[in-house]
Amino acid sequence: MSILDRPTEAPPRHGALGTSPTRPDGVAKVRGEFAFSSDLSADGCRFGATLRSIHPHARILSIDLSAAWKVDGVEAIITADDVPGAPTYGLIAQDQPVFAGDVVRYVGEPIAAVAADHPETCRRALEAIVVRYEVLEPLLDPEQAIDGAHPPIHPDGNVIRHQRIVAGDPDATGEVVVEDTYEIGMQDQAFLGLEAAMALPDPGGRGVELHVATQWLHEDRKQIAACLGLPEESVRLVLGGVGGAFGAREDISLQVHTCLLALRLGRPVRMAYSRAESFLGHVHRHPATIWMRHHATTAGELVKIESRMLFDGGAYASTSAAVLLNAITLAQGPYRCENAVIDGWAVRTNHLPCGAMRGFGVVQACFAHESQMDLLAEACGLDPVEVRLRNAMTTGDRLITGQVVRNVAPVAECIRAAEALPLPDEPVGGHPLPDGGVDVMKLPGGAGRTAETTDVVRGIGWGVSIKNLMYSEAFDDYATARCRLVDGVATLKFATVEVGQGFVTLAAQIARSVLGVDEVELDRVDTDIGSAGSTSASRQTWMSGGAVDAACRAVRRRLFEHVATRHGLDASALLIDGTDVVDAASGWRAPVAELSAGLELDETAVYRHPPTEALDENGQGDCHVAFAFVAHRAVVDVDPELGLVKVVQVATGQDVGRVLNPLSVTGQIEGGIAQGLGLAVMEEIVQIDGVIRNGNFTDYLLPTFLDMPPVVAALVEQPDPFAPLGAKGVGEPPTISSTPAIVAAIRDALRQAGHGGPRLTRVPVRPSDICC
Amino acid sequence: MSEHFVLRINGADHEVRDSWLGESLLDVLRDRLGLTGSKGACEQGECGSCSVLVDQRLVCACLVMAGAAVDREIVTIEGISPDGAPSDVQRAFVECGAVQCGFCTPGLIMAVHDLVDRIDDPSDTEIREELAGNLCRCTGYGRIVEAVRAVVLDRRGEGPR
Predict the structure, then answer these.
(1) Does residue A245 carry a pLDDT above 70?
(2) Where are the domains of chain A?
(3) CB distance A192–B142 less than 8 Å?
(4) What is the pLDDT of residues A142-153, one digit of tens each?
(5) Which of A55, A432, A609, B135 has its CA 20 to 30 A from that of A576?
(6) Which residues of chain A neighbour B141 with C-beta distances below 8 Å?
(7) What are the distances in angstroms from CA A514 to CA A541, A593, A603?
(8) B123 CB-near residues (< 8 Å, 6+ apart)
(9) Does the structure show a pLDDT above 50 at A6?
(10) Residue A11: its pLDDT value, please?
(11) B20 and B66 share a domain?
């Protein structure tokens, strides 16, 4: 069954909302003509490169540039002394130096940058820079950041955030108690399009234009301008083609360095990271240690949740405080629970900095709470599905923060929809090949040909999750869009970043539906219009979609007024039907293209969601905007002796609100599940003594075509009354509970094999965790 | 050491000046000849973003020395559809939703052309195994497999188009 085969009522006009028109950038992308930020170039352009720390914690005693200046072709070398504005930046706290001045705090921290005539010249110049260090004791155990055993490694201290939640009766107990401690490894976003930017300085150095692949142009501009010591209006950002993001482009990486070099030289400068540098140059998903204890009745109904969560934020704060907020406030998962005591810590260490990645804190919490729900099911003698259905949240239920969930909350529907999807029809090892043999590629271990069909056991596991949508905790979150209608052609302008998710397709669909036009042009994405906010937090369909919808409606209102005056009609009775304006009273109709001939209607709109609150000292407050839900069922084949896993199928029921573009939703679901699978069984950045050991695609394993199983999906459509288009963001939920579902399936297989031992409390699950 | 040689790319000769010995074919294509359709994402042959054909064999351009490609027929994404209109593989990618960010796409278009030109009725396992050298981080591969199936059916005269 394909999720594209949904029954629909009256089929919408092709290209409008509810259909899957082809991407406006699709043809350019398949022809290799789409300009990614790494493809940009300008006449006289110079290349930039970054010198990085080799120690996790050290004092810089001296930096000797003299030999580097002698390398033929070097034109600029800059260090912390050359930053004219704020010396530090950051999304929440500005605690991260543009260049390390006195101290380096992680392996890979920028110390200097050079510009030269060729990347190879840059490499030679970097090698010629001599940095003398006094090596300091690194802080590598996050517990030591809390207990005071290690002196502060940053003026802001070693604790980035500590937040408790106390809900209901903290002393409540249940007849059934289950507990364990879970660990989540550090995951990399591993977008394919490496960091790259090109800066074009204004004459006289009074401003700069930066073309960059980012997630949030206006936030970048704010931080860049502060570091350059320029007013924001002197810094213009233009979106360079983005080769994926997944959270890793929300923080500043090479933006300030590129601008500084270009301003220094008075000519264009390009910077581009290698894969190895990219692993050092952007934030990652937080590794976390989570202890959880669930109290329940003998019937499996939750009574209380206790948890201690410790997130390793690495050397700088980035968004750690917000990541922690998500984890602690959604620790209950998509289940009713009145009582809770949660203690959350996000701390600073000399590891790689961590920040945003798809799922943003909820991924870590979900692995813990879903593992706990399975423990609870076992303790109560219940099926994993039954224990989840008994506790499933519905609209009107209260979170442990006291916030009432007002959105549609079809948790039970998502679980039942996933459960109703067919299980794989292939046996272990697949259907026999024409020659009667086994298709080894369908066995755990694949081409290694190590597993025997008779040793392989199939397991099934479940994961269900809740995700907050948009920015939380009193953040003023808004999006801006402009619509111009000229002679029947709509032109949309916004600063919304397209990272691959398909907002460019959706924006045009909105304009076609609202205005009854066929032709929609998309203007350049830059800072010449107000902010759209970040392409993150599953927020752009809701936020920028809401802004585009509002701008198009404003233009439509003016069109109706014009038509009413001209034809003696009542504007309030006019509506769009297909590509016509129709008078509901008389049945009069005429094409939009004809009625808008010679007109120029131009409107800009801002969409803002209702304000949210900060948490109080007990973690109480309406801190989130909205919620989405999803259920995952995973089927895996495991060879218990060899510790090998093959994921066979993932089924999902997802709460999407309303399907605006079925093909885009499918793409988000399948792609998100692939990243959840990666965290479950293969992806982890390994650091030993603060040094990354696998910062490349040979050693950091990503799911390939052979690792990724078929996905079967059911879209649970209940339009959300609070969403401007009825649709919820769909990007993050697929990543969140697919991970615990796969791990639960591995545990199920091991149980069936009589291989009772390991609890598998850590992701990614390694072969040695299974056959220990 | 400065090198001067000629590469035959997409049926035309391209002079390469000032190349250094050992420079990869990918860097020469992108930085010296301005053929930026081939992408670089790992520099070690793991991701397939730089896939091109050299004497009709699919290779990672980041692992081929440019000098080793002299006197060979090189086909890049810019030359996969010489008549100007998108190829059947390119059309299927757009129509089936196989493109999101698009960074892996040029390499995958090359790999899928190589696949469907060699194997006219690939099994699901063959499709996945043949393409396992091309990483995609956005799609989870499902729509790409659908696009390949669409091309196979179409070429066998069984497709919807």
Answers:
(1) yes
(2) 26-34+478-608, 37-137+215-231+241-266, 404-470+627-770
(3) no
(4) 999 999 999 999
(5) A609
(6) 670, 674, 705, 708
(7) 15, 14, 14
(8) none
(9) no
(10) 82
(11) yes
